Automatic annotation (TrEMBL):
This is Oligopeptide ABC transporter oligopeptide-binding protein. Pfam families: SBP_bac_5. GO terms for biological process: peptide transport. One of its GO terms (molecular function) is peptide transmembrane transporter activity. Keywords: Signal, Transport. The keyword Signal applies. It comes from Oceanobacillus iheyensis (strain DSM 14371 / CIP 107618 / JCM 11309 / KCTC 3954 / HTE831). Belongs to the bacterial solute-binding protein 5 family.
Length: 529
């Protein structure tokens, strides 16, 4: 194991903050034993700020959708809470040569419709994700995969154009979700009849997971039911309902009344209220995420690097971290969070300096500033950030108007490129440098795939392409180090913070976990009756 691998493991342990909470102690009346005996079953209700956009893993690239999909579909490889790779639908894997990864699959697994999981199912799923007609927004994670070969019923090989050391990590992303091959065939048949890709899958997504899809009342809730035939031990609760409750305070009220068991997310400004309650507790999870203010680099004046740098230097990130995130975040210097592989701990960022920002703005030809808009979705914290930025940019003469969108419409609109500035986050679901940078800034991913700043930089693209292929750890680090330097210099976004993930949880809920990638682990959750 190389020194960088050791450093990564140590770093992930440090930033994990796994499941920090303050649940009430059991009383002395024997209720704990009674509760344990009654923990099987029940309907777990998760109050979420936004509805899923789609339930087809090839159709979207957003966390509210992935939260639901994660419980329906499984991947060949998965992360544990320390972000180590663990067997999923593959029980083992190895690089048999520089350009071939081989996976040995779990036997006896079936999809929710009874179809067998095997090498042919893996082949059908990966080929669909790579199909330009399907246009999966995160297919970039499979770049370089030339062929998927079913060696035998439970052995599959990925043949790649060049060495891809991180392929198993990439397959932990929803791009590696396994859908029933029968349903894939039905979806293709619907496409031939003029339907959009994913139309069949979105209506009744079929995976191998410990929960099965039951019902989607758009804008209201999505309900999943326990998969009684799950191959690796069934879930504890009978159903999980993802309930759309857009108002933060309403979600907390539902926790207090027991109408919901989890508020996801929890605003940092509401932590104190929960900590004073006997009915609720706070679940805190360190993350590998990035919250940022993005610029549309194709719109004037944001096509000018000096303007982008000026705005970056005019924003006091400490104000946002202390005043809005209540300290539950780390200041971001560049695109990668500490603990992500190939993070550069010596990276120098653009320091807060209002006078220097004014000078840059004048040099760019805007001594008196200009007017612009910031777009955001309806999340309270993002609204607060937009308001804070609006106030701070007044100091350098920039007048900002804030526009608010519903989540699905927001993703669609900023993907089209009609915005000036926007506020968004990136969860980096593989905890690797490539997935923390390429989706947001590689020119291949302009638009809905993730590059909503419309950045195009040939040197950056080349570094990212070479970094993906590089096996030597030191050489790979050097490429991603330079990529991070370019991204600070070019300032396509203001790197705000690496925020802790917070959830409000009813005291009856036990065994809840969240990964540093924000994915919820619900299989072992119990509800004390």
């Amino acid at each position: 194991m190389g020194k960088r691998s050791i450093w990564l493991i140590v770093s992930m342990v440090v930033i994990g903050f796994i499941l920090v909470g303050c649940a009430s102690e059991p009383d002395e009346s024997g209720a704990e034993e009674d509760g344990q005996a009654q923990q099987e079953g029940g309907d777990l209700v998760i109050a979420t700020v936004s509805d899923a956009v789609a339930l087809d893993p090839a159709g979207v690239n957003d966390v509210p959708s992935f939260d639901v999909q994660y419980n329906i579909f499984e991947k060949l490889v998965k992360h544990d809470s320390d972000m180590n790779l663990q067997p999923g639908l593959a029980k083992s894997w190895e690089a048999v040569d520089d350009n071939t990864w081989q996976f040995e699959l779990q036997e006896g697994v079936t999809f929710h419709d009874g179809e067998p999981f095997n090498a042919e199912a893996v082949k059908a799923n990966i080929e669909r994700m790579l199909d330009p007609e399907v246009a999966a927004p995160h297919s970039y994670l499979l770049d370089g995969v030339e062929e998927v070969v079913a060696v035998d019923e439970y052995t599959v090989q990925f043949k790649t154009e060049y060495p891809i050391s991180g392929l198993p990590s990439s397959l932990t992303h929803p791009v590696g979700s396994m859908i029933s091959p029968k349903q894939i065939e039905e979806d293709y048949a619907a496409m031939e009849n003029g339907e959009n890709p994913g139309s069949v899958i979105n209506e009744n997504p079929i995976g191998t997971g410990y929960f099965k899809f039951d019902e989607w009342n758009t804008g209201q809730y999505i309900r999943l039911v326990k998969n009684e035939d799950y191959w690796d031990g069934t879930a504890n609760v009978d159903t999980v309902t993802f309930k759309v409750v857009s108002e933060d305070l309403t979600r907390i009220a539902e926790l207090q009344t027991g109408d919901s068991h989890i508020s996801n997310p929890l605003s940092a400004s509401d932590v104190e209220q929960l900590e004073q309650s006997d009915e609720m507790y706070v679940n805190q999870q360190g993350s590998v995420s990035l919250d940022y203010l993005g610029f549309n680099m194709e719109q004037e004046p944001f096509d000018d690097k000096l303007v982008r740098q000026a705005i970056s230097m005019a924003i006091n990130k400490d104000e946002i971290i202390d005043g809005i995130a209540n300290g539950y975040a780390k200041k971001a210097i560049g695109p990668l969070a500490p603990g992500v592989a190939d993070y550069d701990e010596n990276l120098k960022g653009l320091e807060y300096d209002v006078e220097a920002a004014k000078e840059l703005l004048a040099e760019a030809g805007y001594p008196d500033g200009f007017s612009a808009t910031i777009w955001t979705n309806e999340t309270r914290e993002r609204l607060d950030i937009a308001t804070n930025v609006q106030a701070q940019l007044k100091d350098i003469g920039i007048s900002v108007e804030i526009e608010v969108f519903e989540w699905a419409a927001y993703l669609e609109e900023i993907g089209k490129g009609n915005h000036d500035m926007f506020i968004l986050g990136w969860s980096n679901s593989t905890a690797e440098a490539n997935n923390g940078i390429a989706p947001l800034f590689h020119s291949d991913n302009i638009g809905p795939s993730g590059n909503r700043t419309f950045m195009q930089n040939d040197e950056l693209d080349q570094l990212l392409d070479e970094g993906l292929m590089e096996i030597d750890e030191e050489e790979r680090f050097n490429k991603y180090q330079r990529a991070q330097e370019i991204l600070v210099e070019e300032a396509p976004v203001v790197y705000l913070m690496h925020k802790d993930y917070l959830m409000g949880v009813h005291e009856s809920v036990n065994n809840l976990e969240m990964l540093p990638t924000k994915m919820l682990l619900l299989k072992d959750v119990t509800i004390e009756q």
